[in-house]
Design brief:
Elements (H helix, E strand, L loop, with lengths): L10 H7 L4 H14 L5 H14 L2 H9 L6 H13 L3 H13 L11 H10 L2 H15 L5 H13 L3 H8 L7 H15 L11 H16 L6 H14 L2 H13 L6 H13 L3 H10 L5 H13 L3 H13 L6 H14 L2 H13 L7 H13 L3 H10 L6 H13 L3 H14 L4 H13 L3 H14 L7 E6 L2 E6 L8 H17 L15 H9 L2 H12 L6 E5 L5 H13 L4 E4 L4 E5 L2 E2 L6
Parallel strand pairs: 3-4
Antiparallel strand pairs: 1-2, 1-3, 4-5, 5-6
Helix pairs in contact: 1-2, 2-3, 3-4, 3-5, 5-6, 5-7, 7-8, 7-9, 9-10, 9-11, 10-11, 11-12, 11-13, 12-13, 13-14, 13-15, 15-16, 15-17, 16-17, 17-18, 17-19, 18-19, 19-20, 19-21, 20-21, 21-22, 21-23, 22-23, 23-24, 23-25, 24-25, 25-26, 27-29
């Protein structure tokens, strides 16, 4: 076979690039045979490339099999073309032929397309074996093009640590590789359907950190980069950084399309700026179902159920079909405002109207809807009769409902199931302990605490993050690690005195520990959100809202105190807990004490 020659610009090859159907492709193929082009390497590589897209696989393989002693260049072209059309098994068979061919050795161009295909299908085992082949045949150091494909492969398979290890050894990553690594962190931070707000904040922080390194490397971000960055900011509630990304889009004349738009809607909704999210939604020139989903979800988590349902009806009117995420957001909206009948109706409509099969997340939401409304027995019936095996989230939702409404029998049943599924989850014990405390069964509270000690289970510490002047500050319960700890605790003493002046009586029943009433009151005073509020009152502008993100559900006493703080200090306080937002203003909360 002859190598590249003037045939690379032959008129027949121009015809080949214009082929759209199999018939026209076959006619050009015939011309290549009659003109002798088929005897040259480059024209064969082009016909293999187009054949994989236009012709059956058998036709493409027939062309290749007629080549005497094909070069590694032709083998690589065929493998790449086959993987591009998702004929991965056939591509692997060609790769196997490379390994058995006595005069052909794999090179740097053999592997990237295979890693890309394996990553798309999350074939971790096969990809690891291929990685071994790279080391065997090519040795080290590995070519940066292959390193980049390895980053993408391990990222898509969820192996973020391995991906980052390889990424850090690439001398000058290109934009695509930066995006792959950023996306790896973002995908692992993304909350599930069942976890309505929170994802893995550690991974989201890595996105921000990695983006900072990207800026220092002078690689210019594109739309994919910005969507990933804004999504991470949304997960963290990092309003300042997310707003910077929005301004970057505007200053660089980038179009706020439905991808960036959806990310920004989620950012502003997750940061407590629902009006900004709604304004942005209304200004989008093109909206798709994902934009509607983001805005409906925003209304839902802020407790604005009627607006969520109204937007859902509009979504249907303009012709978008709802998916499972849409219905879940609508049901959540109903749950947060006690619209039980409506929530049930939307759940039933999944099959009957929209031909959607309810997933376990939808059953979780239905149980939550019923449990919040006090229909604990109905919620238990759903758990026991659903078509799939209940998971820990379902049983925990049922236990939470039983705790709130004092149904000890159902609560104990739910706890037994939870201990089978999650024997070391402290939250399950805390829920049961709080139920006993609600019923003034303090001996049982002690028994739960003793069981936790015996099993070596510690209560998950409450954590609150507050953004002040563009920086994120995290506080744990009783935290004394902050540089301004003395000022924070002095302010906290003042806050507690002001609460007493307003006649506040601490709700100590939900404090788990076996301690005296006075100590329980002190434990409540040092809850993480109170420390965050104290710091924000000291350091932030008196006219700025205080925005706090919690890792746990807000407790009854902190909820009551925060309402008073908003009145005493004339500050709007926005708290995002595990499931929703609470907007405290002038002594009231947007949830109307239904949470």
């Amino acid at each position: 076979m002859k190598s590249v020659s003037p045939t690379s610009n032959h008129p027949v090859l121009h015809l080949l690039r214009q082929c759209k159907t199999l018939d026209t492709f076959k006619r050009v193929h015939a011309q290549m045979i009659t003109t002798g082009l088929i005897r040259h390497t480059y024209p064969v590589s082009r016909i293999l490339y187009f054949s994989s897209a236009l012709a059956p696989v058998t036709y493409t393989l027939t062309i290749f099999n007629q080549v005497l002693n094909p070069s590694i260049f032709l083998y690589n072209t065929l493998v790449s073309s086959l993987t591009r059309e998702d004929h991965i098994q056939v591509a692997l068979s060609i790769y196997s032929r490379i390994l058995t061919h006595f005069s052909v050795i794999p090179n740097n161009y053999t592997y990237p397309s295979l890693f890309k295909a394996f990553g798309s299908h999350q074939w971790l085992k096969e990809g690891k074996s291929l990685h071994v082949h790279v080391l065997k045949f090519l040795g080290t150091p590995i070519d940066e093009f292959i390193q980049a494909s390895l980053v993408t492969f391990y990222s898509r398979c969820g192996k973020v640590g391995i991906a980052r290890y390889i990424f850090d050894r690439i001398r000058k990553p290109d934009l695509a590789t930066w995006n792959s690594m950023l996306s790896a962190y973002a995908c692992n931070a993304t909350p599930s359907l069942a976890d309505n707000i929170h994802g893995n904040t550690g991974f989201s922080l890595e996105v921000l950190s990695l983006f900072s390194l990207m800026q220092k490397s002078f690689v210019v971000p594109n739309e994919v980069t910005l969507v990933t960055l804004i999504t991470a900011c949304a997960d963290l509630g990092a309003l300042s950084q997310g707003t910077w990304a929005h301004v970057y889009v505007i200053r660089n004349n980038l179009i706020v399309n439905h991808f960036i738009g959806t990310a920004l809607i989620t950012l502003y909704a997750n940061s407590g700026c629902l009006d900004l999210a709604s304004q942005l939604f209304n200004q989008l020139a093109h909206r798709d179902a994902f934009c509607f989903n983001a805005m409906i979800r925003g209304f839902a988590i802020h407790g604005r159920g009627n607006e969520a349902l109204g937007l859902f009806r509009k979504m249907i009117q303009v012709g978008f079909a709802p998916d499972g995420t849409t219905i879940l957001s609508v049901m959540n909206a109903c749950s947060h405002v006690g619209l039980v009948d409506e929530g049930r109706k939307y759940f039933e409509s999944m099959k009957s109207v929209y031909r959607l099969e309810p997933k376990i997340e939808h059953y979780c939401c239905l149980v939550d809807l019923l449990g919040r409304a006090g229909l604990v027995e109905d919620a238990e019936e759903i758990v026991l009769s659903m078509p799939m095996k209940p998971n820990a989230i379902l049983w925990r939702s049922l236990l939470g409902a039983a705790r709130v409404h004092g149904n000890l029998d159902i609560g104990e049943v739910a706890l037994r199931k939870l201990l089978e599924l999650e024997p070391e989850n402290s939250g399950n014990f805390v829920l049961l302990s709080n139920m006993y405390a609600f019923l003034n069964r303090w001996e049982d509270v002690k028994r739960v605490r003793t069981s936790m000690k015996r099993l070596g289970i510690d209560k998950t510490p409450g954590s609150s993050i507050v953004e002040v002047n563009g920086s994120m500050h995290e506080f744990l319960i009783g935290d004394r690690s902050h540089p301004k700890v003395k000022d924070i605790y002095l302010k906290l003493e003042e806050m507690n005195k002001r609460l007493q002046d307003y006649g506040h009586l601490p709700r100590t029943r939900d404090v788990l520990f076996d301690i005296e009433d006075e100590e329980r009151e002190e434990a409540l005073s040092y809850h993480s959100e109170r420390l965050a509020i104290s710091f924000a009152l000291l350091e932030s502008d008196a006219s700025a809202p205080i925005r706090i993100i919690k890792n746990l559900r807000v407790c009854v006493d902190c909820h009551s105190c925060t309402k008073l703080f908003s009145k005493i200090y004339k500050r709007e306080i926005i708290v995002r807990d595990r499931t929703r937002f609470h907007h405290f203003k002038n002594g009231t909360c947007s949830c109307l004490d239904y949470w």
